[in-house]
Amino acid sequence: MTHFMNSKEDIVTEAIDGAITASGGALSRLDGYPHIRVVLRSDWDRSKVALVSGGGSGHEPAHAGFVGRGMLTAAICGDVFASPSVDAVLAGILAVTGPAGCLLIVKNYTGDRLNFGLAAERARAFGHKVSMVVVDDDIALPDLPQARGVAGTLFVHKIAGALAERGADLETVTARAERVIAGTSSIGMSLDTCTVPGSPKEHRIPAGMAELGLGIHGEAGVEQIAYLGAREAVAAMAEKLSRSMRDTPHVALLNNLGGASVLEMSVLATELVRSDIGGRIGQLIGPASLMTSLDMRGFSVSVLAAEADDLDLLAAPSAARAWPGCVALQPAVVVPLPNGLMPIKAMPSPHAATRDFLVTCCNIMIAAEHDLNALDAKSGDGDTGSTLAGAARALLGAMDQLPLADHTQLYRAIGQELSQTMGGSSGVLLAIFFAAAGDASSSGLPMREALCAGLDRMQQIGGATLGDRTMVDALKPALDALDKGLAAAAVAARTGANHTATLTKAGAGRASYINAEQLAGHVDPGAEAVARLFEHLAA
Amino acid sequence: MTHFMNSKEDIVTEAIDGAITASGGALSRLDGYPHIRVVLRSDWDRSKVALVSGGGSGHEPAHAGFVGRGMLTAAICGDVFASPSVDAVLAGILAVTGPAGCLLIVKNYTGDRLNFGLAAERARAFGHKVSMVVVDDDIALPDLPQARGVAGTLFVHKIAGALAERGADLETVTARAERVIAGTSSIGMSLDTCTVPGSPKEHRIPAGMAELGLGIHGEAGVEQIAYLGAREAVAAMAEKLSRSMRDTPHVALLNNLGGASVLEMSVLATELVRSDIGGRIGQLIGPASLMTSLDMRGFSVSVLAAEADDLDLLAAPSAARAWPGCVALQPAVVVPLPNGLMPIKAMPSPHAATRDFLVTCCNIMIAAEHDLNALDAKSGDGDTGSTLAGAARALLGAMDQLPLADHTQLYRAIGQELSQTMGGSSGVLLAIFFAAAGDASSSGLPMREALCAGLDRMQQIGGATLGDRTMVDALKPALDALDKGLAAAAVAARTGANHTATLTKAGAGRASYINAEQLAGHVDPGAEAVARLFEHLAA
């Protein structure tokens, strides 16, 4: 089984139940399972013209997703890709039709036309006013006298639905639906076929090809064309649509046939607006999954030469869950980049003692390069020493540019320098350490407390805690002991570093991907670097 | 190329442009292409706490789809499955942060944590108040100290976003975000891997298997399990989620990982509510594509032990396009079937002349069975004669049950009888013909006009016009000529029927799939049946 379902026989009723569940009470259904599957607006009072649509399932969210105030009153759901029965349609009509009558919106497939048509006759025999429109928006086969009904049906649902909601009578709603159908054209394209529940997948479209002019039931497209990319794909469709478009502003509907990712659909939206027909598109619906063909990796574009009163109805709010809205296209607003992306360079300032201290620290790191690399080779890629020594050399080179006389600025400047020269996670983490220490220093904390604040932030961001086999295992005890003097700090750092050799499970950082046997007996190179620093400073 | 894109390098910027286009002006972006890709609320005035989120692309609609009033203020977009740069994050923070400060909502991946973390430090150096929360909702690896951040992030976006929109301060919004994170658990399942733009697809999951406990970057799941169907799949996930759920009502979020069809997602919604944790789910978000993994054929379930004040914020309206809303679960309303589905049987009534006429008609059809079958074999499956003769025999058998004395009721009763006994399109079409004739008769039209009204309706529903090589080619001229008498009608019917032999392109019905050579020279069997009927009646 390649679908999230339980059985082919239950997929439609279970999906309807899911749609009703997800509606939070907005949708109901008729008590006609398994054969009569009709989804209804829960808030319907028969006071206005009812709109009934439907057809085979497999096109979700059509049609149950469009049931709601301002769109459909009821959706009749057949089996996957199969027309619902006359009885099911009749049940739907009878359940929702009041004195104002009912409009059936049918996609142009023989089964749907006949079954909805006969159900309409039966309903009329009960004295109901029922009219029916047939949507035939597909332009894939321009010579076909009976064009298919595809995603352009949504224009009819929305415009007729909003009109009915405003209280228009059946004749008015029907006439408007007919006008919308006459002004609508659609075409689809796909890179792969859909998989029908319970059936083997038909691998019909070779790699590198696309099908143009397909319907929504997995039927083959009119032609297979070389697929060169989104731009060319939209251009080929735009060319076909263009022939049936007027020179007036259109509403475009960009429909996901089910299996295209949201990322791709957004790229297609960009291409549609950029295409040759983009200039004639004033409003956009989607991109969204509206009238799908199961999981087909494809999309369709529908265009409607909408008149002003259509736009008003398209923009009207609807309670239907799957309606994505209709927006007016407008030039994208591009906001200038904010100031502050270029790092603020503090003014250099001399301070002999601080300079000496920093130079000493750097030299300690440079001297430890070989040992730290060797240690890192036991648990990583053997470059910890080189990374730290490289950063130390860069810091030595930048020494005269640093604000040595201003500790707050100095922390930040060191952080900036390290993030630019060290690279990788450790560079970012040390940059965070120094930047946060600078923050703390700027609010008046003394050195030890500022460094502790830096460590806290580094731990918060990096996620390492004591015992995770990182530099924190030496640095944290050292800073904690620093108020007792450098010697105490050095002892604490060494004790912490040595302890890492007994930790065989690393909790953070790259060593967490190494197994226990490889780690046992080796001190973490980051912790070792910290221990050496404190030991040399204390010496 | 298997994606709707132009190039791997441009896919993110082009998708952002598409999202901005589809927003109708609600979204803007920073002028930082190609490296700084930041989407902003167009209506932002910095008067409240700003919410910034983001990460790698490929998770659409996350995160740009959740930018809008009541959710995110800005989304920072990295390359597909790659963290955005520190500069990009910093640009976003600086662009939206005012005196109320900024909350960064980060999913727990090292790159995101470090880059957002360092950007936060830089922004603080400008005097901005910036806090950061890390979402780690994935329970796939319960022993992992650093759990991944997946779709549960949406709870944080929505609750913190609504709280900030109401004017809460940064500390309050941050604390609430932390509380929501602590109360959230998620797990995912997939039937197939995602396809990364520009990379070959990794076929890792064998047919019949599902991966449980996967992330949102195409990484392998914790385990592969036999896939037995939607119910068992949800049960396996519910069992894992159950361990981290409290005994209080939860909000569940049902997320499409990108490639599951809308039909399937609805089935999964049904199964989720039916599952062992269903009783603890009080509210539902989705099913919807919220935090995808490109086109992965999978889904995830997130649960939040929401407190009352969370529910209020979850239910608050949001302008973010991709937010599907949060609904309270309630028992499905099942409406009784309407009356009227059982056909109304008119009272039988005797009428000798009408009975004789109908018996004659039936016998004509029965006598023509062999000839009509032979004719149909030229262009169809050779059963037109048998279908009509079978219907005629059924009608003869039902003769004493018909309301022969009441023409209006008789039309309808014949239509009912034919729709039950004939089957197929022709049965439905003749049922429509007689039902519509009955309607016309009930409004006072005489026989010929009533039959013409029936024909009009049959043509409207069936779509056949004159010249389409159907029974209409004989029936329409016959009815038109009927006011000059039966003889004239018979001549017209025969002329029309014979003309169909010259029509080599059928416009409606099954013969439209037959090529011209096969049709040439053969009268349409439906038209022939009509001609024989009128000829025998006139004789």
Protein described:
The structure is a homodimer of 539-residue chains. In chain A, helix 4 (153-165) runs antiparallel to helix 5, helix 11 (384-397) crosses helix 12 (407-421) and helix 15 packs parallel to helix 18 (525-538). Chain A has two domains: 11-196 and 205-328, Dihydroxyacetone kinase, domain 1 (Rossmann fold); 352-538, Alpha Horseshoe (Serine Threonine Protein Phosphatase 5, Tetratricopeptide repeat). The first copy, chain A, has 18 helices and 14 strands. Chain A is of the alpha/beta class. A seven-stranded mixed sheet of chain A has the order 9-8-7-12-10-11-13, sandwiched between helices. Chain A has a six-stranded mixed sheet with strand order 1-2-4-3-5-6, sandwiched between helices. Chain A is elongated. In chain A, a hairpin with a 7-residue loop joins strand 1 (27-30) and strand 2. The model of chain A has no long low-confidence stretch (mean pLDDT 93). Chains A and B meet through helix 1, strand 1, helix 2, helix 3 and helix 6 of A and helix 1, strand 1, helix 2, helix 3 and helix 6 of B. Strand 1 (27-30) of chain A pairs parallel with strand 14 (334-335) of chain B, so a sheet runs across the interface.
SSE order and pairing:
2 copies of one chain form a homodimer.
Chain A: H1 11-22, E1 27-30, E2 38-41, E3 50-57, E4 74-80, H2 86-96, E5 102-107, H3 110-125, E6 130-135, H4 153-165, H5 170-182, E7 184-190, E8 209-212, E9 223-226, H6 230-242, E10 250-256, H7 262-274, E11 281-288, E12 298-304, H8 308-315, E13 326-328, E14 334-335, H9 352-367, H10 369-379, H11 384-397, H12 407-421, H13 424-442, H14 447-462, H15 472-481, H16 486-499, H17 516-519, H18 525-538
